[in-house]
Amino acid sequence: MDYLHEPRIQPLFHDLLAEKKLELAILRLDEVHPLVSGNKFFKLKYNLQQAKKEGKSMILTFGGAFSNHIHATAAVSQIEGFKSIGVIRGEGTDSKNPTLAYAREKGMELHFVDRKTYREKNTYSVIEDLKQKFGDFYLIPEGGTNGLAIRGTSEILGEKTSSFTHVLTPIGTGGTFAGLAESLLPSQTLVGISVLKGEFIRKELEELMEQQEIRPQGQLQIETQFHFGGYAKWKPELIEFIQWFWQKFQIPLDPIYTGKMGYALWEKIKNDHFPSHSKILIIHTGGLQGSQGFTHRTGIELPYSFKVK
Ligand SMILES: Cc1ncc(COP(=O)(O)O)c(C=O)c1O
């Protein structure tokens, strides 16, 4: 799998940035590939190579009904010639769900499990049951996060981003944050905005980085106060921010991940979190397909239209 477009670094200009003497840019990973956008491109890349190396013909993975990871895995499996199985949390009664409709269209077989089984998805017995049912598969965990995904996300930063002092990313399962942490320079601070409610993410990330033997050279900050009530929860000010950001910069943000990061960024700029002369890079991790699901669930239209083929 290759980039269709090299990720570009797009500078953003605004009076507040000038007033605070800050530079801001956004790394447009949402543009790298039309079907496998954002961090998914990096998380899936080495996993697919590994599946091929192991001679597997089937990919099995897990996700919620509006998951970006399910969407991307379905698309990329088809491109790379794998059969794909999506184990989905909850009931499959909503036939109009755009994410699942798309996954089916891309040939993914959907297997719905109750919440208890889903919680136990990493246990031996659940995996064995899945093997009995579907046969031999290459397993990619929920959200795509594993060692190979982190190897992929550690390639997001590089020479072109070396002059930035601060890098911001949303945190879900933490695989993207861990990969960015791995390639961070001593002069850089990585700020992760958790989209989930709770402090547990700090310990989870610590464990993940320990397990992957990641010893970051720069500073790490994890922010847990921008979840808007929890995963996929929202408040009107989040949607207003996404609308404002689109009007100002013509950059689409989704309400689940990048919108929360963007909101956090702007709050932090207003509150003088960044010393003057900081050069801030925000990572657009993609996820725009989730906006269709958001509109489907809430009836709220976002200011941009997003269609994948
Ligand atoms: C668009 C988007 N951004 C950010 C993330 C968070 O990434 P991670 O799970 O690696 O923390 C996800 C979820 O995987 C996502 O879909």
UniProtKB/TrEMBL annotation:
<dbReference type="InterPro" id="IPR027278">
    <property type="entry name" value="ACCD_DCysDesulf"/>
</dbReference>
<protein>
    <submittedName>
        <fullName>Pyridoxal-phosphate dependent enzyme</fullName>
    </submittedName>
</protein>
<keyword id="KW-0663">Pyridoxal phosphate</keyword>
<dbReference type="Pfam" id="PF00291">
    <property type="entry name" value="PALP"/>
</dbReference>
<dbReference type="InterPro" id="IPR036052">
    <property type="entry name" value="TrpB-like_PALP_sf"/>
</dbReference>
<dbReference type="InterPro" id="IPR001926">
    <property type="entry name" value="TrpB-like_PALP"/>
</dbReference>
<comment type="similarity">
    <text>Belongs to the ACC deaminase/D-cysteine desulfhydrase family.</text>
</comment>
<feature type="domain" description="Tryptophan synthase beta chain-like PALP">
    <location>
        <begin position="26"/>
        <end position="286"/>
    </location>
</feature>
